[in-house]
Amino acid sequence: MKRFIGFIRKEFYHIFRDRRSLFILFGMPIAQILLFGFAITNEINNVNIAILDHSKDTSTLEIINKISNSKYFSIKQIISREAEIESVFQKGKIKAVLNFEKDFGRNLIKKKSAQIQIITDATDPNTANSITNYINAILQNYLQEKNKSIQLDYQIIPQTRMVYNQELKSVFLFVPGVMTIILMLVSAMMTSISITREKELGTMEILLVSPLKPFQVIIGKVVPYIFLSIINAAVIVLLSIFIFKMPVEGSLILLGAESVLFIITSLALGILISTISDTQQSAMMISLMGLMLPVILLSGFIFPISSMPAPLQVISNIIPAKWFIIIIKGIMLKGVGLAFVWKETLILIGMTVFFIAVSVKKYKIRLD
Amino acid sequence: MKNENVIEVENLTKAFGAFKAVNAISFEVKKGEIFGFLGANGAGKTTAIKMLIGISHPTSGKAKVVDFDVYTQPEAIKRNIGYMSQRFALYDDLTVQENINFFGGIYGLSRKAIRQKSKDSLVELGMHEISSKLVGSLPLGWKQKLSFSVALLHEPKIVFLDEPTGGVDPITRRQFWEMIYKAADQGTTIFVTTHYMDEAEYCDRVSIMVEGKIEALDTPKNLKQQFKVASMNEVFLKLARNIE
Amino acid sequence: MRTIGYIVQKEFKQIFRNKGMLPIIFILPILQLVILSNAATYEVKNIKFAYIDADRTSTSRSLIEKFNASSYFDVLMDFPSNKIANFAMLAGEVDVVLEIPIHFERNLIKEKSATLGISINAIDGAAAGLESVYINQIIQGYNRDIRVSLMDTSHRSIKPINISSSPSFWYNTSLDYKTFMVPGILVLLVTMITLFLSGMNIVREKEIGTLEQINVTPIKKSQFIMGKLFPFWIIGMGLLTIGLILAKLIFNTPMLGNIPLLYLYTSIYILVILGMGLLISNFTDTQQQAMFIAWFFIVIFILMSGLFTPIESMPQWAQIFTEINPIKYFVEVMRMVLLKGAGLQVILPQLLKTLAYALVMNALAVWSYKKVN
Fold it and tell me: Which listed site, A325, B14, C28, C131, has its alpha carbon 20 to 30 Å from B200?
């Protein structure tokens, strides 16, 4: 046991002596969470649009004013011909053109109906779709004001309640995701690299012939990273609470425990990667190339899993990050207890056991 | 053998902060000589070599290698020297032949010269049959001999060998020194560091470095006389003890 | 030139001899392109929808029927009480709960107005916004139907004014996400592979000690660096080619623009990334450090590139920050050229900025590469 503690101490020295890595290890997650928390949003606002007004009357003016007053849009350009749309879109700054038909105002009064065309640059379908929806909403609003005089009968009034996130802040979606991606990659990458590094430099053999048992060697290498990752997780949670005003509706202790579990899952994955790679290079490529995009794309971090094609929804189940994101969202935003996330917790535990079992097996084969 | 100096060093110093790894050393090496550069681990041998081969800037002092100044003409020096480091530095994931081709190529040898040279050295090394084997799979002794041949490929005027025989069995060491003699006979100057004191006996002249300074420099025979001992090993121990 | 050739040859041999790395360099990115492109969709569909029908009249049932008919909603179940519905939402089993209050039908007919309760899980704010739009569309449509069937004819003569808006989605009429994402993900893969490989390469030689051996040779800094980077440049261009072919064959991604122009841009872009990798290599001592730094930058660059989330929606300071993000330019150019058919004229600003970036990066890299300590 004493020997083992000595070994862990050596690992700590290794890490803490390398100031540059240490700086990266702690500085990066903080920088990333701040940057992303503030900057990344999948809402639209301040979208640049152009106006093509063939009518130029009071009603088009009223509508244009309404649109430019909304926080979603800023009117950047007035164009006069359809032919200009192409070049405007080509430049890429303008995302939509509002095309009022000729005699818009007159039609609205005389025929009670007028035409408007919402032309969007749909290379980004999400933005295009959102723009169309928001403009329609503004138009509806305009109509409601205009029709106020006419009492509408038989009205159904929906009262919508946005649960868990009343102001629809996208930070609530992204912070759990960023936290997950940081913990996952830092833990998996660091362990896999530090173990393969010993292999590559030949020092692993020296450790293995020492009286330490192989699993002690591995645990010794992993323990410092557990500490580092726990500190990282704590910093991220504090930042999200105090800077991004994320609520922690549920138990902080449970959140902590689940984070430790997820860190261990990631470390176990790192160990597994180290058993299948001989060089740091391949360990890194596997943990970076193999983990980064799947974690970003298949975990529900940015894109809703329920909208994915069925096979991908199935595949997403093997991504540990998916389950952890469900757990953090549950605890922080919904305030649920273990009663609601026990299933996800068990899955993470199961994955951890699986990763370790496979590593042990691979490791044994190697020694024979 | 002409009395022509190929290395001239005067008060060469390398300081890392307040610590002087190499402290004002001065010496000359003559053409065709086997010059032993001895010292305990950490005495500053490798640091000194790195300055001479142009990959480390001296803090102060003068040094000329093959008539070129280490401050201003490191690239010219590099064309005229060979170097074999204490860490094995060929590519493990290339074959014997590929390593030779590569290093020959970046020294600017013509294709024909490379072909001729590699044939000669492979025959000499007895590695003809295994030229298409990955270097990583060879035993250490073979790798070291191969390294030495590669360092000689471009017919340098001086070869710097930094502990070339570390960790190698006595028979291979013996063969290695035969290669060194052969190169020296052909006029190549050999600058070799070692901490095997028996190897020091093979050198024409040796210098002994202790804590950054050269404490002794002469032929092995003269040194033994001077310190009144029977072997270089005792010379070395005596010197080290004096310092302490 | 011949010297560079030797280095290039050596690098290629080392890359292709490393059987463990080959699949990571070539197969993994392609697999990811093919699979993950399907995952990146903001489309909101299969919304898990449940309802509490306290009214249980033909009106309430026909409203629910409307939701049933919509392709956006998966109508899951009928909850007997609010409490159970909340519970299901906590457990993540439903995203939207429609609550039809008791006397809904009676109020609608007698008081000419009735309310509905809607609860939306809003953790994903953007999705919640869209869901709310879809719900309102359905309810309004239903409302119109009701009016038509309940109003007497005399009332109908007072017609409210209406604006009919017709959306027109250019360049991607069917709003296909894959059209949008495939070029972007291809950008990522090309970038990641070239950055990681080049970032690790030189520091690896530092670590195993072969770099010192190279440094005592008379080879010039620039020769060495060019020889080192050229193979990765080739690999990057190769990946682009494979990626474009797959994009065409599997996703039928539109390729309206000039493909040689895309190659011209990419050939410069990869230089930026390689220069960056080399710079990282120069300032680190171990592969571990190098990878960490590379990882740090790549995550920031990816998430700030406009690939997944629109740049226009970022705060002003963040938008200014994206100006130094090379991935942003590549994503823009890729989409502009492939999807919009943009020509040289249009992408010239991006091209020039990337070129300047490449010059600066590589100058810094060559400058900071030290043969001498």
Answer: B14
